[in-house]
Amino acid sequence: MPIVTALTLHRLTSAICAAAGSQPGEAALVADHLVGANLAGHDSHGVGMLPLYVRCLTEGILLPNQTPRVVQAQGPILVLDGQRGFGQAIAHEAMRQGIARAAEHGVAVVALRNSFHIGRIGHWAEQCATAGFASVHFVNVIDHGPIVALHGAGEASLGTNPFCAALPGQDGPAVLLDMATSKWALGKVRVAANRGQPVPEDSLLDAQGEPTRDGSIMFPDLQGALIAMGEHKGSGLAMICELFAGALTGGRTMQPDHARAGGAINNMLSIIIDPGSLGDRQRMLNEADAMIAYAKSARPRRGVAEVLLPGEPEERRRAERAAHGIDLDERSWLDILAAARQVGLADGQLAEIVG
Questions:
Q1: Which of 86, 128, 240, 242 lies 20 to 30 Å (CA to CA) from residue 141?
Q2: What is the structure's pLDDT at 1?
Q3: What is the pLDDT of residue 254?
Q4: 285 to each of 170, 173, 313, how far by Cα in Å?
Q5: Contacts by residues 157-162 (CB-CB < 8 Å, ≥ 24 positions apart)
Q6: Contact criterion met (CB below 8 Å) for 50 and 187
């Protein structure tokens, strides 16, 4: 399997986006986000997304160089239409405007509709936390067929519908929870299939609604269904994400009256909170630090080395991969290079970029 440095992947991603029509600023934001996902250990949301992006660019499903269109802006309320633009640029701008409104009003409610894939949702909570704000995010995923089966269902009716929340700490997030509401994200199934590895038990159904561990059934035609996490509780959260992100924002839900173009469109409802508007900020930070220390002091269960809190695995993986490189499966790497050639990058140019 190729092991590639983050710098090389960033150069390659930027070059692919630029060749596909993105302006330099947008290409850099896409590269920052995708490579950042790989560094955090979330290869499902990293540079392996590039073949999908290139396909959707060539089909006119993804539109480069868009900016969010303001639908409504009144007090703490902000409603934006992403106009099918690159989600890495669209959501970045949505969070920037939301943070500014939260700084003014103490809280902001940002409804983002109709953005192309906005990637790892934790990235947007990190943007808020780095600016000193707490945030909660509800997301749904549309424009393709359903891929997640609710508890008790033998076929899919939802997308992977992430939920994310983060509390700021002294420097960045104190705790960051970012999760798909399916047991496994579709991208993780793709990575497992590419590596020839089985998915975990009770995480996937075949086309007949029977359990399977063969992730390849989902590609390329999504002939199966991921299983919602947490039985009825995870299903409930998945439905809340669908309705809060897809209906409450004024966007679209997965229900079949809407056309499906074969892309990956996200709607996101974000609540951004200035901790200082609720009380003493330093007291909040101190209380959070004390609670985190108390939680981590718990005695581990047998066979568990250490109690970890949300966000800690990503921090450790960043350090490891920044030092030693990012290991990509062979299929993903070849698909990325094919996507680069599809947008016009010659083999000589690729050789200069990747060495």
A1: 128
A2: 63
A3: 97
A4: 7, 11, 21
A5: 157/254, 158/228, 158/238, 158/239, 158/242, 158/254, 159/242, 159/254, 160/185, 160/186, 160/226, 161/238, 161/241, 161/242, 161/245, 162/121, 162/137, 162/241
A6: no
Q: Give the whole-angstrom CA distance, residue 339 versus residue 344.
A: 9
Our measurement of the distance from residue 319's CA atom to the centroid of its chain's CA atoms, rounded to an integer in Å, reads: 20
The beta-carbon contacts of 349-352 under 8 Å, at least 24 apart in sequence, are: 349/15, 350/12
Residue 254 backbone dihedrals phi, psi, to 5 degrees: -75, -10
Compute the distance between CA of residue 271 and CA of residue 137 in angstroms, rounded to an integer. Answer: 7
**pLDDT score of 150:** 96
Question: What is the chain's Cα-based Rg?
Answer: 20
pTM for this prediction:
0.95
Predicted pLDDT at 2: 86
Task: Give me the pLDDT at residue 221, please.
Answer: 83
CB-based contact 113:139 (threshold 8 Å) = no
* Exposed/middle/buried for residue 340 (C-beta within 10 Å: 0-12, 13-18, 19+): buried
β-sheet bridge partners, residue 135: 166, 272
**Strand duo 173-179 + 163-168: pairing:** antiparallel
Q: Which residues of the chain have pLDDT under 50?
A: none
- Residue 102: what pLDDT? 98
